[in-house]
């Protein structure tokens, strides 16, 4: 290659990458871009605080058996950990997802992206991938590390052997939480040109549905109406995955269908909104 | 497979009930082609259809021998697009943005970065390439749009109003760049503009659109017409009567946006000043005063005005 000081246009004689991999470029750029923000790195570090607390708990229980009666290590502990990570998931989703498409719409970047040889789905996957990667970093990664620490601290596979279902359970529960959050946020991001409005819409969706559930519960005197709350649905399905008693009277299948419906709606919104031009008929 | 850069075969593009392109059949040869037309003629719609942004209601589009409907990604891999309105990836400096655009177009990361630097120097942004794009002036944003369209070395470049918002010096530099790209770098160029001098300076061939249809097309020199003389005329008096008298004498008249007419006289030149004298005689017969009379040259504006009709 000639040096950069050759300041005139040259024809490119190298080999271009095959089609179908641009989503990885978008995802990697998004991940690197987030790591450049100090506030976000601080958020990630703080998100691992519950992991540290649980890790200490595991250490105490394995080295001081009397602690086991106060701080039992069981599937409930892992399930509670994932629920506790709901708060970091909320903030990481907003930080990584609110501006994902909104900022591109504001800067008219979609026409730049889609004029390149990439499909709309690659653009969506790339943007989704950035949020999903960081959400997995605060859910499934610390959850499996806890499981690994339990094995290391106890020096045996006994707990894991008796609770082998924890591996698929942690995976499914984490993915459920991650994908519901990521798809919902990305769909909202495609509806606006302001990341702030998107963050408010997302927070509104989460808190409003919770508040609505609270109000309906008082009115009907039952938790059968928990299906209106996004958070409650996630908790309900997670309880089912971990084979724990369901906390709401809403059927498990209903909660699952509501979440799948939310994801399907998000995909539908993304399909309509991610285009090279905004066509007004 | 056609030799033409672009082929449109009975293409109709509709936005609801509005037909932006009406059964258009046209062929854009390789080289530098101008796409002309007044606002709302369908120029941007045509470019966006060729990019695959807007699927046509009917018809077939072919770019560099590839069917746009069947191989949209292969088409876009060989295209570079400079959009009319502002567009950039937020939060990046120029070299990162252009390198990213190169990667999205398929360049390996190292090559994309190398070419980003080269292309930014080529378009005149070498010194400002580490600045955030959002801090750029209008002219610099135009240049960076060109850079991101060029970084992956396309075979065909779509330039939609490339001199939009630029000062005269910047506009001249942009036109020089585009001319260099089209004539010396072996890249086919489609220049969409409503600025006739820009198209005339850069392009050899022109397609004129009006109300969603092709009004005329062909090599610019051929469209300007056979040998003849052109005069700019401004008169005071009954204009309609004067125009009728000129046309009766076998002269062609076109009004321009300014208060000036362009009069075409075909055939061989006569004695020195004979044309001007004849125009003045006609003006006298029509009882109008000649306020301005000057020899001019046939331009693309004459082709354009003739093609779309005068208001």
Commentary on this structure:
The complex is a heterodimer of chains A (281) and B (311). Chain A is mainly α and 281 residues long. Chain A has helices spanning 22-35, 38-47, 49-63, 75-84, 86-97, 102-106, 110-114, 120-137, 140-154, 158-162, 166-189, 195-220, 230-241, 252-273. Chain A has one domain (22-271). In chain A, helix 8 (120-137) packs across helix 11 (166-189) and helix 11 (166-189) crosses helix 12 (195-220). The longest helix of chain A has 26 residues, at 195-220. Chain A starts with 21 loop residues before the first helix and ends in an 8-residue tail after the last helix. By secondary structure, chain B is of the alpha/beta class. Chain B has two domains: 6-219, P-loop containing nucleotide triphosphate hydrolases (Rossmann fold, 3-Layer(aba) Sandwich); 228-308, Reverse transcriptase/Diguanylate cyclase domain (Alpha-Beta Plaits, 2-Layer Sandwich). Helix content of chain B is 36%, strand content 29%. Chain B has eleven helices and 14 strands. Chain B has helices spanning 43-51, 72-77, 94-104, 109-122, 138-150, 168-184, 196-202, 220-223, 239-248, 274-285, 300-308; strands spanning 6-15, 18-28, 32-36, 58-63, 66-67, 79-82, 156-160, 188-193, 205-210, 213-219, 228-236, 252-255, 261-266, 289-296. Chain B has a six-stranded mixed beta sheet, with helices on both faces. Chain B has a four-stranded antiparallel beta sheet with strand order 2-1-4-5. In chain B, strands 12-13-11-14 form a four-stranded antiparallel beta sheet, sandwiched between helices. In chain B, helix 6 (168-184) links the parallel strand 7 (156-160) and strand 8. In chain B, helix 3 (94-104) packs across helix 4 (109-122), helix 3 runs parallel beside helix 5 and helix 4 (109-122) packs across helix 5. The longest helix of chain B has 17 residues, at 168-184. Chain B is elongated, with a radius of gyration of 23 Å. Chain B starts with 5 loop residues before the first strand and ends with a helix. The model of chain B has no long low-confidence stretch (mean pLDDT 88). At the A-B interface, helix 1, helix 6 and helix 7 of A face helix 2, helix 3 and helix 4 of B.
């Amino acid at each position: 290659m000639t040096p950069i000081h050759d300041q005139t246009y040259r024809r490119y004689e190298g080999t271009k990458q095959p089609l179908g991999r641009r989503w990885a470029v978008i995802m990697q750029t998004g991940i690197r871009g987030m790591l450049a923000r100090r506030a976000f790195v601080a958020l990630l570090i703080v998100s691992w605080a519950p992991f540290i607390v649980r890790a200490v708990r595991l250490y105490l229980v394995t080295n001081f058996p009397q602690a086991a009666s106060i701080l039992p290590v069981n599937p409930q502990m892992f399930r509670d950990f994932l629920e506790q990570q709901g708060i970091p998931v909320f903030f990481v989703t907003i930080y990584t997802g609110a501006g994902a498409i909104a900022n591109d719409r504001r800067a008219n970047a979609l026409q730049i992206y889609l004029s390149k040889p990439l499909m709309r789905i690659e653009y969506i996957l790339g943007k989704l991938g950035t949020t999903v990667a960081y959400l997995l970093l605060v859910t499934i990664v610390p959850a499996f590390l806890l499981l690994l620490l339990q094995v290391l601290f106890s020096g045996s596979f006994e707990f894991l052997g008796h609770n082998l279902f924890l591996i698929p359970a942690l995976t499914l529960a984490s993915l459920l939480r991650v994908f519901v959050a990521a798809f919902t946020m990305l769909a909202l991001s495609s509806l606006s040109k302001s990341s702030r409005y998107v963050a408010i819409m997302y927070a509104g969706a989460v808190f409003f549905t919770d508040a609505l559930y609270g109000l309906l519960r008082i009115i009907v005197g039952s938790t059968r109406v928990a299906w209106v709350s996004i958070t409650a649905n996630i908790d309900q399905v997670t309880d089912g995955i971990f084979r724990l008693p369901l906390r709401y009277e809403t059927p498990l299948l209903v909660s699952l269908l509501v979440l799948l419906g939310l994801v399907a709606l998000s995909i539908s919104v993304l399909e309509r909104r991610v285009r090279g031009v905004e066509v007004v008929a | 497979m056609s030799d033409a850069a672009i082929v449109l075969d009975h293409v109709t593009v509709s936005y609801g009930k509005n037909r932006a392109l009406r059964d258009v059949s046209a062929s854009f040869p390789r080289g530098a082609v101008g796409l002309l037309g007044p606002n709302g003629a369908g120029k941007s719609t045509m470019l966006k259809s060729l990019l695959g942004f807007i699927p046509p209601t009917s018809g077939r589009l072919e770019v560099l021998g590839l069917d746009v409907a069947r191989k949209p990604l292969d088409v876009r891999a060989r295209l570079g697009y400079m959009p009319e309105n502002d567009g950039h990836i937020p939060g990046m400096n120029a070299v990162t943005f252009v390198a990213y655009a190169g990667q999205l177009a398929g360049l390996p990361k190292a090559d994309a970065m190398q070419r980003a630097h080269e292309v930014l120097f080529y378009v005149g942004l070498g010194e400002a390439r580490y600045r955030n794009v959002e801090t750029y002036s209008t002219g610099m944003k135009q240049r960076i749009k060109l850079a991101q369209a060029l970084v992956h070395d396309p075979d065909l470049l779509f330039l939609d109003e490339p001199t939009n918002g630029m000062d005269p010096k910047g506009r001249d530099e942009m036109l020089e760049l585009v001319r260099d790209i089209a004539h010396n770098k072996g890249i086919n160029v489609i220049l969409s503009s409503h600025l006739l001098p820009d198209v005339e300076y850069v392009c050899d061939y022109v397609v004129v659109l009006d109300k969603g249809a092709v009004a005329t097309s062909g090599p610019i020199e051929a469209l300007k017409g056979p040998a003849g003389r052109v005069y700019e005329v401004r008169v005071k008096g009954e204009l309609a009567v004067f125009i009728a008298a000129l046309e009766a004498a076998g002269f062609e008249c076109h009004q321009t946006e300014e208060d000036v007419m362009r009069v075409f006289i075909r055939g061989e030149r006569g004695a020195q000043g004979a044309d001007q004298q004849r125009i003045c005689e006609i003006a006298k017969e029509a009882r109008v005063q000649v306020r301005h009379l000057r020899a001019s040259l046939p331009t693309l504006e004459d082709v354009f005005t003739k093609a779309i009709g005068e208001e």
